[in-house]
Amino acid sequence: MDWLNTLWLGRSKRAETTLLQGNIADFLMSERGLSENGSGEAVTFHDPLLMRDMDRAVTRISRALASEELIFIHGDYDVDGISSTALLSLFLRRAGARVETYIPNRLDEGYGLKANGVDEAIRAGARLLITVDCGIRSLDEVAQLQEQGVDTIITDHHEPGQTLPAALAVVDPHRHDGSYPFVGLAGAGVALKLCQALAAHLELEPASLRELLALAALGTIADVMQLTGENRAIVKAGLAEMRRGALPGISELLKAAGTDMPAITAKALAFRVSPRLNAAGRMGDASAALALLSSQNAAESRTLALQLEEKNT
Q: What is the model's pTM?
């Protein structure tokens, strides 16, 4: 059994499936503490449709793909937000979507979905806005988008307030009315679950989407999430993909940081990669970091990595 085929299972398969099967046992065993308790206990990737509103999000995005609507992805300026934005935009573009991305300026706008992001989406002519790693408390902004005829899908991992935004779908494992089995996902982890559900619905080939795991692992580590449950599996799989050369941007950034790609560890991501990506966001403009994580070109990635290295010194 190919572990990627297991990862991308949808509702038509088992509601839950463990990754500790067949020839992938060594891959996800307790070596380096993958399992919950270090005893070899299986780690489970849960069905993404167990998350509230995931089905509504999949249906709306599928409609946008079919009608070639512009999809506006609104992220955040930290590494989890940038990784989430790169992850979802990469997936949707490969699925044939028209996509625009937006990362708020930390100095001018601060965290989350704000008026500038709303204005940019409306100006771009978007009819669907998807947040990643933000939006769970953006009630006024979602209402404004709704007034302008823009559907909103919130994907976030932060704690909601007493009232949820009046979005078409609110996908957050922390929803008080939810029962998703693992609430510790990073923003990139929630974005990965959305892509998992979409891939199953659209019957896409999962082997072409390996980079998503690397991006989800980066966001999970950078946001200092507990490495238990699905997070352990995401990080283990993502590190393996990085060692195989997934994402030239990460590879070039590691080279600029003086780290050998085959030796990449969670510690190297936390202390060498994340600070260099965060440097761009701290200075107000995270566009170079997003471009690096989204790049599929080694030469372009090298140039961007050197730019980020300069900002970090």
A: 0.87
